[in-house]
């Protein structure tokens, strides 16, 4: 019995020392991919304000393109611009990296006419490049309050 307790104590102590290093290293690795995804959101928002949504579509994942044609995407983005107006600012609320190949970023986006929560999901494809794979504008207020300005 004493041997089993001793083994458990050794395992717990080892995990306390090494587990911290392992999790810290994972977070460091994730920081790079998070930054790339955040930079891509800034580019997407600039292109949106410049009415260059075709360039946004060209940088989406193959799965996104299978699910949404360019024509449908252009129509959705045009309608979004008419309703929300120009983007004024974004504030990062949350970020999550899944298996070092998917990044989910949640923002509070403030447009001319509305402020709401938006989620951007990026997935690695083709030699590790990140592509927009999901875009969700929470128009119904499920993730946070939709504010009419």
Can you tell me about this structure?
- The longest helix has 48 residues, at 2-49.
- The model is unreliable at 20-26 (pLDDT under 50).
- The chain is α+β, with helices and mostly antiparallel strands and 149 residues long.
- It has one domain (34-148): NTF2-like, domain 1 (Nuclear Transport Factor 2, Chain: A).
- The chain has 4 helices and 5 strands; from the N terminus they run H-H-H-H-E-E-E-E-E.
- It starts with a helix and ends with a strand.
- Strands 1, 2, 3, 4 and 5 form a 5-stranded antiparallel sheet that branches.
Tell me about the largest β-sheet: 5 strands, antiparallel
Percentage of β-strand residues? 25-35%
Spans of at least 5 consecutive residues whose pLDDT stays below 50 are 20-26
Helix share bin:
40-55%
* H/I helix tally: 4
Topology:
Blueprint: H1 2-49, H2 53-58, H3 62-67, H4 70-84, E1 87-98, E2 102-111, E3 114-125, E4 129-137, E5 147-148
Antiparallel strand pairs: 1-2, 2-3, 3-4, 3-5
Protein name: DUF3887 domain-containing protein
